Amino acid sequence: MAARCVRVALALVALGLALTLHAQPADRSARETEAQRKLDAIRAELRTLGDAQRALDAERGTAAAAVREADEAIDREARGLRDIDDRIGSQQDELAVLESRQTALQDSLGRQREALAALLRSAYALGRHEQVKLLLAQDRLDKLARVLAYHRYFQRDRVDRIEGLLAELAQLAEVVRAVAAQRERLDASRAEQTARIADLEAQRGARRALLAELDGRFSDTQQRIAALGRDEMAVVRLLESLRDVFADIPQQLDNAKPFAQRKGSLAPPLVGKLLANFGARMPDGRTSRGQLVAAEAGTAIRAVAPGRVAFSDWLKGYGLLVILDHGDGWMSLYAQNDTLQRDVGDWVAAGDTLAGVGTSGGQSSPALYFELRRNGRPVDPRGWFAPR
Fold first, then answer.
1. DSSP class of 336
2. How far apart are CA 90 and CA 59, in angstroms?
3. Structure confidence by residue, pLDDT tens digits, 58-91
């Protein structure tokens, strides 16, 4: 709209000049006055449009900041939820070990009880048998006393073992109860964390709706392209500033194989539906400098090659973003994530999980936006991945 108004203004000026050259003096003065009035009106309209555009841009900035805040809050809560899930898994493993031990002790206790019962039956039978013999032969009294003493010794030993097993089972039962109580507390914490994430998702949805409404009002195509161009330049500047951040990254990684020699053998960051290839227009109007791949929210995004995390944060136009430095000026970018699982400075191997697929940055559906760059310049990723 601004460009159209400028063209109209120039046309009016040209018309005014033409009238000045060909009209009579009185008529020329009237036409000049009318042309000036129209020109002043156009300039006033341009100023009004400019003010409105700046105000709308400020609103969009505020809304984008709110979306960023929601994205980062959800990322923090998701990290907490993963920690709770890890602890629940550990508690579950511990419970399984304890329950297995409890079962073994109960089996042993059963065997000891059966042995004691058999021993008692044997002693009883032996006693009765020997008493009959005693009536017939008094010289067997010493032997009977020794046998009964042995039986009492074995009985005492069995009783001691049973008491020990019962004590151990009692202690084990206390441990099992404590672990189960801790598991219940973790389950409750997980439920609370999940509820907080759901609440944050609702807030993010409202903020994205507001941002979408503002984007709809921000209808001037040239200004939209300029705004997106500023986003692109922000990434270029970021990449330039990151180029020397990790000077200790060796030129050769992973068995002395430079990144450039990995062309045709990289593993894809994820497997999904290709929405936009290099050079194609993406759903938000930008031209793709990489690949946009749709996948379910939360799908693991993996490193295409070894490297070091140079950036792991939110960036306007890209949402939650991870950038890997692979050395020799090569970088890979993974954008629009819902969660970040690596911190700046972390070393990663090919295939390590970096993030989870999401819609951060105000996107409408979950997808990964992936780029390869060399010295800050986009490189078409086609031909770099190993054939499937």
1. E
2. 47
3. 776 776 777 777 778 777 777 877 877 787 777 7
CATH architecture, domain 229-379: Distorted Sandwich (2.70)
Say if CB 280 and CB 287 are below 8 A apart. yes
Residue 386, classed as helix, strand or coil, is coil
Distance CA 324, CA 342 (A): 10
Cα separation values, 224 from 7, 53, 216, Å: 19, 11, 10
Rounded to whole angstroms, what are the CA distances from 306 to 251, 317, 348, 368, 369?
Answer: 12, 26, 6, 19, 19
Q: How far apart are CA 71 and CA 339, in angstroms?
A: 8
Q: Are 325 and 331 in contact (CB under 8 A)?
A: yes
CB contact at 8 A, 324 and 332: yes
| 141 half-sphere exposure, CB direction, 13 A CA radius | 3
- What lies within 8 Å, CB to CB, of 110 at 6+ separation is none
DSSP letter for each residue of 353-372? EEEEEB-TTT-SS-EEEEEE
**Tens digit of pLDDT for each residue in 205-214?**
776 776 666 6
